[in-house]
Amino acid sequence: MKHLRRFSGLAIQGTCAAVVLAVGPLSGAQASTPATAHSSGPAPSATRMLRVGPTRTSPPASVLHAHVATRATVVACSQPGKTAPAISYLTSPEASNAYYLAETNGALRNYGAAFYGSAVHSRLVGTVIGAAPTIDGDGYWLATSKGSVHGYGDAHFYGSAVHVKHAQPIVAFAATPDSGGYLLVGSGGAIYNYGDAAFCGSAVHDHLTSPVVGIAVTPDGKGYWLATANGLVYSFGDAPAIGAAKKTLAAPVVAIAPSVGGKGYWLVTSAGNIYNYGDAGFFGSPVHKHMTKPVVGITASADGQGYWIVTAHGQVFNFGDAQFEGSLVHAPLKAKTQVISLFRRPVPPLPPVVSTPTPILASSPTTVHGLFGYDISNYQCSTGSPTTASPSLPSSSGISILEVAGWLDSSSNSCLASEAAWATGAAGTSGNHYQLYLFLNSPGTTAAAQSQAASGPAGTCSTLSGTAVPSCVAYNYGFNGAKQALASATSAGVSTNIWWVDVENTNLSKNDYSNFPSAYWSGSTALNDQTIQGAIDALHQGNVTVGIYSTSPQFATIAGPFVPSGPQVPLWVAGVPWTNPPYTESGLFSSSTLASWCAGTAVYGGTNNGVDFAGGVPWLLQETPGSEPSPYSLDPDYVC
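RE: above sequence
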């Protein structure tokens, strides 16, 4: 495409930026429950505090040292376009209500759950600060304030930070979803990852005004949230940024628990106030109940439709479908000992069912492999006749990709019908006449853009407030713009069963809207994701296959690690090496080089960036030269 022709200067960026938000009830359509349902304490305001921190793809030097000292495995955070096979476990229809209470001295109290041992008679290095079960419920770990980790049952030891000199104590512990690793968290935001636990960033350089008190891991293990005592939540990896507020909380936050769906979380304060975000529902709080000691933890039930809250004296409060199995309220603890957490025993699963996302094949039924062709746009309309294709277009093009519109709210291709006629003739007997593409961008502040985004599947944006407004605008803009492009192609008598959405230009705006002519995309990857998803959803309603044109580094900068919902997307990969053919110069790569790009195993020259992005598979490649001209001043394309 014209916009990516000069591709030699790649701006490579990571994908694991940290987002910090102050917690509080969400406003408008994003609120999971009315603000009054959260607690009896003063409800924080809904003012948005969103700060995108520096990109982090490796631990700070101090953490790296810790890994070397303990032989821990450094596992990278999730990369754009890499979708791990989903593992689903078949469980009994009834959720487990068995749970454990862990105490600071290493004692463990089990209620309806098997006992595999404790550290109460061990010479602990530090006091126990956290615990977590294994995925099958046949074991658990205990972790201490000095970074020591103790495993019982089938909980394997993957390393510890016990021999590392800590600037701050370890305050939180979490296991990975597959029980193949775990994370330790320091009160200053340091992250220590072991086994298959991914390092997606830390808060050590974020000048915390309050200590970290908890960590919650996303269901796929590719991200996590860190919660601080004053209610800030730091989002890393694929953990979505949820929540917004600025006011001081009634009591300090003491724990965070993730929702089952991974799109929300609960925060609980020492006074029992519950703040729920995203898909985490509100089921009640103990704020008006008699508590002899402060709350120290919260744990969700198996289906996320309830939770348990525990105090330092072992008093247990159950809400929703979380059933009460017992507590320590009538069993006094030893001196200087307190309960630090309640954790649920998972339902023992049947053998795992591994389901790999069904890939879209690397070609459509009507596409012939190994063809070269060209992509063209409104720039190839005849100068003297804007509705006619340029007479200088090549006489042969095995596959052609035609631009329908240059922006989501304007710049329709005036000679689309003529270019489609050219493509049909240029394809000859190949049977691959043409496909269509649409150039995407964030909504601007123009009257046309705002009018297009005003209402749609995301709602009527003027009726919303807070962060729900730009999210509504972004999605509606993408959806309505793509729907308009479909109508434009239909009115021109042009149709195809494959459409591409073009995502490029990493010069992002500094706000939630595009800033033409320099910045096509907003500064928020989350909002950009909404626009992309909106466009894809609209095209899917037109019963067409939808793919994405971009490069892995550009897509990561614009959309982060975003994987669109729906079928796995085909990819039109740009920035591919210049080969002979279609070029005729000597010294070029052989076209056989393209096989590794179609397979998704190639990397961009001088980088470690792979081909894939958005969880997709390559269908098309675009050979994009640097300073040399392309044939016919067009970029050639290759069918995988």
